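Fresh eyes needed here. Have a critical look at this protein's tokenised backbone.
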Amino acid sequence: MKYKICLHGLALKNKGQLVTVVQKLLLPANIKTKIKEKYLTNNDLLKYKRTRFSPVNDVGYKVTCISGVMMICDSLQPLNEVIIQYEEEAVEEVRKLLQKLLGSKIKFVLDEPDLVLRAKQLRGRSNMLDMAHYDEATIATALYCHLPWHIYATSKAWGDLLTSTNERNLVRQLRVKLRRLRSSLTFFKELLPMTTFEQYKMLIKGWANSLGDAREYDVALLTCMKIRHGQREEENVEEVSRLEKILQDLRAKASKKVLNVSKLNTLTLQLAEMLLTLHTAKLPENLADVRLKAFIRLRLGCWCDKLMTLKDKYPDFSDMEQLHKVRIKVKRFRYSLQGVPEIASSVSLRRCMKSLQDMLGFLHDDYVNDMLISEILKQYPEDAALQYEGAMFCGWERAKAEAALASLPELWDSFTAQLGEWQEEHL
């Protein structure tokens, strides 16, 4: 089987930059150039120059450079692609090539190598089932399609964050992409050696943790903004509070820490290494003949059974540590279900899961906010104004949190009832 890895270049200075870099790395090589123009549905257009490099020595891979544009929804999208097509025996040579490419000054992210499928993605009409190696007859499709789908999304989200001057909303978006990738990795963990699974799980967890502080400060700052707007209506308050200024400073330091530590091409290389591993992984013997849908049904069934017993395992919903564990498992199930288009999920179940996750998230944010503000107040015990602002902050959404906590058992029962009905119908 032939595999592809696509590096998408960001903010290139000139159209020939990619070709120049690749040509230096692949000498000697046979080079063929062609101008391509392809019309898609909805008047979308692909127009680019394609340069193919075939190394003279039989190294088991070929490289294609694409420079041009995509016209999608009347909007121009740049095409600056390096697509490496390789066979399994060439994986070590491809790894060396990736290291050299990602050691250049050009910033890269991973992207879908099929440009027609990418055009559909930009229109919001893409489907995992359209990927080149999708085959419902084999569980290996999870390695070639399901996990790469999330790897591409994660890589692009890192690129957006690390090349943006206003990354506040992008932090949240990246954290969601990381959760989806980690949920999918956990869902299909039986397809990988345990050491490989643990390695990638910890890598993704480390990335999520590096973004955690910035996200927590964002949540606290949002509460500060609500308080300020509420006071403004009542008392015509315009100034930012001292507590808000402290949180803004802490948020800026957390953001700087992430942006300084994380180099985009280093992250892209780590994700590319993950792709290489998935492309060449050997299925366990007991799963070699298992069909994709059968495996997904089995895994979802096991997860459903465990969700049904969570209330017995964690009976005290007022215990925020227990509730956090419930939240993680519900979130993991929801993201995993969204990541397997082979299995239908009812609208009512999706809405119920979303409501439950939002409520659990709100309660967790309120819990984290209280701890965060308490730690800040400990540092300024003599600052009466700050102590007052902290007390107001902690009490601001407490009534909402108490009301949410009171309604949680009813929402949980509704969720498990719908989950049971869905499981019986679809699994």
